[in-house]
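Support case: coenzyme A complex. Customer-provided input:
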Amino acid sequence: MFRIQSKLDTSSPEFRKQKEEYLKILAIYKERLASTTRGGPEIAVKRHKDRGKLLARERIDLLVDKNTPFLELSPMAAYNLYNNEFPSAGVVTGIGVIHAKEVMIIANDATVKGGSYTKETIKKHVRAQEIAMENRLPCVYLVDSGGVFLPEQSNVFPDKYHFGRFFFNQARLSAEKIPQIAVVMGSCTAGGAYVPAMSDETIIVRNQGTIFIGGPPLVKAATGETVTAEELGGGEMHTMISGVADHLAENDVHAIQICRNIFESIERREYQPLPTAPIEEPFYDTEELYGILPIDVRKPVDSRELIARMVDGSLFHEFKERYGLTLVTGFARIMGYEVGILANNGVLFSESALKGAHFIELCTARNIPILFLQNITGFIVGKQYEHGGIARDGAKFVHATANANVPKFTVIFGGSFGAGNYAMAGRAYEPRFLFMYPSSKISVMGGEQASQVLIQVKEEQLKARGQELSPEDRDKLQQTILQKYEEEGSAYFSTARLWDDGIIDPVDTRKIIGLSIAISQNKAYKETKYGVFRM
Ligand code: COA
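Agent response - structure generated as follows:
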């Protein structure tokens, strides 16, 4: 492969200024991230520790092999929602390594509203199980939860992907021979009792973990029976009398050790072999990404400059370099793994759409994972292009992306607008993981365009009634839409609602994508079958 020749002058004042600006954006992101990963309010953290319990992230640290990476997912879920009373949505999820096997860990944070589940908590838990299914990852549930957050019951209980889905998923995962292990380290009430009950193997902590369908107050109200929580559903009882749990632990540390022991005898059942090469750091400094990434999404960026700072040795075998210039395609290695890259370099034209579809066919034919680097305002518009069949060619690209069965990974490095989001493996196209940068933007179109469309619609409406839109009303409408799109288009708005798997620091991209490819090797890649391409 040839090395990408950077055309950037990294000593120029513009580059330095942009880098400075980006570092400010990054500092805000790190501060916000730190405030969410601290967990619940100080008083709740203290109470939790005084009970001799470890915090959710401390439990995970102990559970995973020393000096191995933990890929935490959506740590800023529920950010800026519910007055920020649900940091990380009250559950920590991520992929860690236990006895050299990659495992999905789902850990309730009992310092956040008693570990109860609101809408985003549910979405995060279900998403973690979906990732486990796609990548054949065993699941460990570190349970410490008050169950459904009762004031939000209509948003968390009845629908297809609500609370009930946890147990459906556990049954399906177990049927696929994907181990389901629960460690009950606190409360586990009502529906929540099914997490340990539906697990393949369950550990419970003495005088700390409880499992019951109805707690003591409910039992008293329903039957008049007075019973303590420990008698009703404690560890001693469940491991000796009911058989709902299998191992009794003395405390958190002991429970985690038992959980680790279980993984001594769990083997990977499938494996996707991939050719690998020794890892080589990029030739160009990855920190230069801060001087390149678009802060204003209207600023054109040559995505080769990004690729040069992400891939091994900055080496890139570019495909169709002279054709369809608004999409850069080619092969490279990331952390030693071969990967096909599609990166936006402007608006998508017919040629770039055809090039994208062709390149995806190459990757699926060769069983090579695909990395989509998104910075897309959409497909080209206008009479000439509609007559030329831009919808037909765009459809080929979307079709290829949708059907590609090699793992897809998406990083939104600029804007993600319109149907370009679909072709470039947006959330609906099931990339194995989708990450954003703190500066990224996502919405159906840019705020400016949306406000123009809506103003025009309003003007037409009024015209039909013989009226006109006053300049004041026009300005007001424009400002309202601009403000709405600004807020709703931010990476924080997206990550709070789990439209992505987390906001990441751009310099970590190659490590995170390398890790993601390694994770995907737990399941053999399925053959790709395409449908009818509109010609
Ligand atoms: N719904 C709504 N809020 C809940 C909740 C739930 N299911 N479970 C806990 N909370 C809230 C509490 O109201 C409290 O909120 P606050 O800090 O704003 O006052 C916070 O979580 C901590 O609860 P608290 O009871 O003070 O903590 P604890 O550690 O002593 O006890 C539980 C935790 C989970 C054992 C206890 O709160 C409990 O039994 N909750 C109800 C469990 C239940 O019956 N769930 C059925 C739903 S399926």
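The chain has three domains: 1-36+274-440+503-535, 42-263, 445-489.

Case will auto-close in a few days if no follow-up is received.
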